[in-house]
Amino acid sequence: MVQGDQESIVYGCIKDSNSLAGGSDRRRVNREAVLALPSADEWPFLCRDMFSIPTIKVKPSQYQTDVIHFGASYRAVEYEWNHWIQKFEELLRSMYWVSATVHLETELSGIHSFTWEAAGLYHEPGSGDMQVRCEWTQEGRVSV
Predict the structure, then answer these.
(1) Residue 100's CB: how many other CB atoms inside 10 A?
(2) Core-most of 29, 37, 72, 104, by most CB within 10 Å?
(3) What's the pTM?
(4) Residue 48, phi then psi, degrees to nearest 5
């Protein structure tokens, strides 16, 4: 990394319950939402290449939670963080999920964790029932 560049790491996961009715349809909708993201995006990018793509079929031996994980390295994304969050929430609006977590690791201001939780049992595409909570951790200190 060139001196003066500030690297930011963004990673997390989106969780949905596959024990709820319509499991394969829910997975299909979520898969289509991720695949609808651009392969390359304008800064600060949120693109399909940074996401795992869920499978439609689930084996009976799998656990009860579908997990879509993601991650990317950026150059100082924290300066455009509100814009990145808007893009991420647009994706969440088009998906089924129970909770979502994003971690932002920055060189200057520590680690920020953002958690979205569905207002009911789960979030349904198109509904606006999202609640977000932010937690900031720096050198062993936590603030909410």
Answers:
(1) 25
(2) 104
(3) 0.85
(4) -65, -25
For 53: left if phi > 0, alpha if psi spans -120 to 50, otherwise beta; the answer is: beta
Strands 110-118 and 130-138 come out as antiparallel
Sheet containing 110-118: order of strands = 65-75, 7-17, 99-106, 110-118, 130-138, 141-143
Q: What is the mean pLDDT of residues 87-105?
A: 93
Query: Averaging pLDDT over each range in 1-5, 9-13, 15-19, 108-112, which range is the top one?
Result: 9-13
The first and second tokens of residue 127, run together, are: 């509904």
Question: What percentage of residues in the chain have a pLDDT greater than 90?
Answer: 44
> Residue 120's Cα: distance from chain center in Å?
19
102-129 residue pLDDT tens = 999 988 888 889 999 888 888 999 887 6
Q: What is the spatial distance between Cα 56 and Cα 78, in angstroms, rounded to a whole number?
A: 34
